[in-house]
Amino acid sequence: MTAITTSEPRISIEELVEQLEQRIMPQRLVRDPLLRLAYGTDASFYRLVPGLVVRPENEAELLAVIEVCRDGSWPMTFRAAGTSLSGQAVTDGVLVQLSRGWRDAEVLDDGARIRLDPGVVGARANQLLAPFGRKIGPDPASINSCMVGGIAANNASGMCCGTAQNSYHTLAAMRVILLDGTILDTADPQSVMAFRESHAALLDGLERLASNARTDVELARRIRHKYRLKNTTGYALNSLVDFRDGIDILMHLMIGSEGTLGCFTSITYHSVPEPPCKTAALIFFPDLGSACRATMALRSAPVAAVEMIDRAALRSVERAPGMPESLRGLPDGATALLVDVRGVDAEILQESISAIGQALEGITTLEPITFTDCAATYEMYWKVRKGLFPAVGAVRDIGTTVVIEDVAFPIERLEEGVAALSEAFQRHGYTDAILFGHALEGNLHFVFPQGFERPGEVERYQALMDDVARLVAVEFGGSLKAEHGTGRNMAPYVELEWGSDAYELMWQIKALFDPRHLFNPDVMLSRNPTLHLENLKPLPAAHELVDRCIECGFCEVVCPSRDLTLTPRQRIVLARERARLDALESPSESERQWLAAFAGSDAEYAIEQTCAADGMCGTRCPVDINTGELILAMRQQQHQRWAPMARRIGHHFSGATRVARTGLRLLSAGRSVVGDKAMTGASRWLHTTSSNQIPQWTPAIPAAAPIRILHRKTGNTGQRDQVVYFPSCATRVFGADKRDTDSRAVMDVVLRLLDKAGYDVVIPEMSGHLCCGMAFSSKGMGNEAIHKARELNRELLIASRNGQLPVLFDTSPCSLQIVEHLDERLEVRDPVAFAHDYLLDRLTLAPLDERVAVHVTCSAHRKGLHDRFIELVRACARDVVEPEGISCCGFAGDKGLRVPELNASALSGLASQVSGCAFGVSNSRTCEIGLSQHAGITYHSVLDLLDRVSQPGPFRARSVSSS
């Protein structure tokens, strides 16, 4: 076997950091042990804590990291989103994160190609290509969360990708850094020419290996057979038989190499068509065998995807919202095929559906085949399919992990392969395993909960994996890793699948690129036969709110603190580690140091203070975990000493809001005297010296709201519909932006708009004293939050005549907060839903020709109002911009003033995206303050926009009176 040097002495971690600090900014180097654990966790069931985490933000910094680590003999692992499942993104060496600063994307040739940085989320690439009717070829189930770096490094495929549209086959160009620091840009002829001269030995070596592979008839036959299937086990040996030129071989070897040969800094894909018309059917068969035969029959049919779901998998999702009732009554052994059809128009779809019906003639189904014409049902089918893996995680026993592996059988042997696989699960006691996957490619995933703590469990798992490896790779000639990458979990079995000659060839490839074994060692190729049984991740019970988490990372892309401190997944990782340490009877010295770290201010800042608790993570979590609830529970426990003060403020709330308005008036006066620059400097000094206790002033802080507006009522003719209007405490405190020419407060806008639309308005008595409770709950003052919510509930019942009238809130967060405490007779309306559903019909609109930016708040997202929000704005303006990648603004009540860096980080890419907009709109007054601060334009309530463009209409809309 080719020798690779692995024993060169490393420099110390202190020396490594010292040298790196001379090349890149110190804040890019993470030494804190808790952060290293959090950042070093991926979606697999392995745990390694990096010695150092480095977060370079450009190619020069990345190059410096590679050179310093290489010279110091420190191994490096490159990480994008960390959604990988097989342990290829964990390390105890140096973890190099390529996310922030690596999000550039460029559409080329009218959508025919797209150049992407490794930190671009896959779904973002498809958003950019959508106007051209194109998309990238790979479509993994995690495409809304995983990044291009991982997609290419693992050669991920997915539901509709097959083998023809994966990264290997749609690769156009690549920019890659090798271990010696050389940068090769295959799209640049000069770079290629220079590389041919400087690295002739490397290219000659690759071409020699390719020539030998092609002339070895048996090896070439085996390679072609393996890649007739989906296959990501080991290196892409097909590059040796598909290409003769060293540059082409090198570029395609990088695909699926899991960061073990080099690090690419951009990739250019050939895009593929995305047909505009789609439909799908969930077809039920009496058993796995008939579903496999149906799959074979569909091989020649015009289908985009065929996904198999066995009875156990169906059982895990049969109670999901929208799923057919008939699912619960399916017999044991029943199997479903989710059949997807796509086309350029409805006529093509119908022709395809007819062809599918003909192909399945003679094969028994449990129900008639019905393709849906409902977009919501179509999306629900695919959401359920993509959620099968975490669905198992949601019901597993606490303390167990979830194992997912993906194998591929030759399609002609799918039926017997599935039967053999199922028998192996039963034989080893894995009776709760589920089976699903991309049946059209013979690619199946098996998922099961697995504990490693009890005696005998590691051995049972090893026996299963040994049997599966022998069965799939040897008996059936299939792939042990079809699309999830080799990782640590399958590295010990690569030689079993490929044979010793092909395995030796892979070691020779590794030696050409990385003779010192510094790039992601032990991933893909390993001499350790028990690697897959070592460094297993502990998953102790931490809190009932988050124990279901499988650490998949789907939540991270929408978290406002993801680039500042931690993500929801990482907060859960630390909560579990704290629980594990607290349960130890005799912690070691190092474990006591970790406990001390948890008690420090840095941990509190990262875990609690910088969490917006916005709930956006729950909208992406496949098992519906809102990590913000965990943080709020922590705050309530930590802040119990403040409960008496919270009660006093709650009992004198109108006085507290008066004090706040008085403070705003004093700030406005000071601003007019000393100017924005001096005010900002003084405020920043006070904020810092008070340990962030004094809120930081910004020029976006508005004037005080004129509360007298509430004394003005609209007409009471007795002939108009009535609505109760509750002004939130935020709109009662914050008026218009001082920099804005429109000086109207939100309350004024709402009253004028309702009057224009033909409504009489009822305002609750004591409105200045009322609050939904969010101001208290967000700080962990749960008891006072409940008290204020019940108080508001009582007054709304009185104002609405026990629910006869609907209640309009003027900010979305408050309408969401109060829902949990509402009397069932009350019907609360969100401002976006009310305006879209009931005001548009009553008004005559003259849309603006100006460009308008829109920010859909986290509460609106959580209430499913995104589409209606955008429709509302498009009805009012002809040119609407919705910035990409901005989910929650991070202002989070008053965190934008107390932790302003959270707001700044969450909105770091906003200004460039809204450049050229006249103004922006949202539906939360505090969010609008933070948006105005960082966008370079002012933001108003979306109701303000509607009022600007509207005149009274015919008032023929349906009544909003509660039934």
From TrEMBL:
Any single biological process term in GO: lactate catabolic process
Keywords noted in UniProt: FAD, Flavoprotein, Iron, Iron-sulfur, Metal-binding, Oxidoreductase, Transit peptide
Cofactor: FAD
InterPro entries in alphabetical order: 4Fe4S_Fe-S-bd, 4Fe4S_Fe_S_CS, Cys_rich_dom, FAD-bd_oxidored_4_C, FAD-bd_PCMH, FAD-bd_PCMH-like_sf, FAD-bd_PCMH_sub1, FAD-bd_PCMH_sub2
Database matches in Gene3D superfamilies: 3.30.465.10, 3.30.70.2740, Alpha-helical ferredoxin, Uridine Diphospho-n-acetylenolpyruvylglucosamine Reductase, domain 2, Vanillyl-alcohol Oxidase, Chain A, domain 4
Family: Belongs to the FAD-binding oxidoreductase/transferase type 4 family.
Name of the protein this chain belongs to: D-lactate dehydrogenase (cytochrome)
Organism name: Halomonas huangheensis
